[in-house]
């Protein structure tokens, strides 16, 4: 097993990104000119807010009382037995209000939008979890909310579509391309270009143009901050490994960030292996991608020889995306974060296993991390400790899983 | 003097604006597109702006998205786009610029792409999702190979940014007259005169205005204020309206272009 983490000189994790949003050769700002000022204004507003105790106090208050933080770090005893090795802890982001880590960022950006005087919110969503979180935050703060969602995702996550509408959001289906997350982001950006003066775009992952990757990361850092305290209290030591699924990368960087300068802690991001690493059949950017620029950001992309973006596939809508957050690409180059992938079949099996053994139905996205966690627990042996980020709950997925299993509801 | 500079010198001398016509390269297919572009070049077009079809054109409205999709589905590739330019160059010296997205330049190396574009006969490149702050490799390659750069200024661009944008530009400034994506609108945006004047206090580069312009009257309105008038979606609609009938596409484009071109003279 590679241990590059221990050999690489440590880097001040707060030194990234630079003023232009670069994580080494990744990240940056690649948007139409119309959006440049909005991004710069957003960056400036965030810079003020992050140093403003009033903003931090308000955010902490809502994270506690509305979202339900802190979340538990749960010892998964029967998964541990099943794995037959390292102790497995689950960071229970699935217990948050609206069902996933996404609410951390949605609440924070909604508060920021209020401070900026923007009354209209737009968002993209894949699995629907970010859309639901944004719809909830907008309902709570009385903001108008439009969510863009690929038509294919609306079908496979129809419960979440209804939840968003119940909370007053307008859900606009996107019919272009493969009708998933990428097309929803294109459409959200078109809306933003058109309505930029009145509208804040709550991007749902650690992706896009500066300041989004940094800001979204910061809003999820609480995951790792809590986990560190909790594991020290429980085990009296740091974990050996952290494992999280990676769509754009927000739940993963949220868990990892606090540990980046702890050389003994290995970190593994898990991408969507879909039907296996064949063109168009997966979303494992580090397995089949190369450097490019998409939707505001320079990073690893699934693309053809000429730079056209390739279609992707994953059983989980939230990981079904052609590009990966720039900070992950940066730390992968340094060997600080390693990447693996889990296939649809492995995910379907682990989804049922976790439900049966723990009484916890995980989101299909998070289940990718469970697949890898079980493999690694076995390899590590019993005196080791791993934390898996359970980024969301699987309620939204049960209809789709039933369909795949051939069960009529 | 580059072809673009010559063109603006000529249109200025003639006291008129340059008519910049946009179509998507290879829409709906290579052969139709070649004939369509030739018809445009024979119908009063001063600068031909060729959209390079991209899978994710996030600055474009539905009209141009569908055009790019048609072109890609019918086999347009980078090589075919260059081939189209080469074929047009056999019979025309009119400036041709690419309207494109950065990943298409970046994928196989910016320098190699710009060199190939130049060799095919391309005069300028406008990269929609590339702000000047990130454009170092493109501006360097364009300088090396003698291709002009075109950058956008938007209504939301503050004065302080204009010198940065102008410094990266060698061909002309493209002022997008409204916040939003490409597409035909009922009315030309207000404040164009003011915006063009604002830009001219910072640079002597020609300023072309586009986004939302689709009729001869709108062209005339903008031609009174700017060095160039860009029409895109209204021309692409001529393709969309006659899909499956090459002769009609070509005739409709020629007629529309001739009509629009009559708007660029200043009374
Ligand atoms: C539960 C859950 N986990 C993970 C993700 C993937 O996003 P990210 O990589 O930003 O955490 C999603 C996205 O929809 C999600 O709903």
The count of DSSP E runs of length 2 or more, i.e. the number of strands of chain B, is 8
Specify the overall morphology of chain A. Answer: globular
- Rounded mean pLDDT of chain A is 96
Count of DSSP-assigned helices of chain A: 16
What is the number of helices of chain B? 12
Strand order of the largest sheet of chain A: 3-4-14-9-10-13
What is the correct CATH architecture of chain B?
Answer: Alpha-Beta Barrel
Q: What is the fold's blueprint, element by element?
A:
The complex is a heterodimer of chains A (409) and B (267).
Chain A: H1 4-7, E1 22-23, E2 26-27, H2 33-50, H3 53-67, E3 73-75, H4 77-83, E4 87-92, H5 102-115, E5 120-125, H6 129-141, E6 144-150, H7 151-156, H8 158-166, E7 170-174, H9 181-194, E8 199-201, H10 212-235, E9 241-245, H11 250-256, E10 266-274, H12 285-288, E11 290-294, E12 297-301, H13 326-333, E13 337-343, H14 344-358, H15 364-380, E14 385-390, H16 398-405
Parallel strand pairs in A: 4-14, 5-6, 5-8, 6-7, 9-10, 9-14, 10-13
Antiparallel strand pairs in A: 1-2, 3-4, 11-12
Chain B: H1 3-13, E1 18-24, H2 30-41, E2 47-51, H3 62-73, H4 78-89, E3 96-100, H5 102-106, H6 110-120, E4 124-127, H7 136-145, E5 148-153, H8 162-168, E6 172-176, H9 192-200, E7 207-210, H10 216-223, E8 228-231, H11 233-240, H12 246-261
Parallel strand pairs in B: 1-2, 1-8, 2-3, 3-4, 4-5, 5-6, 6-7, 7-8
Helix pairs in contact in B: 2-4, 2-12, 4-6, 6-7, 11-12
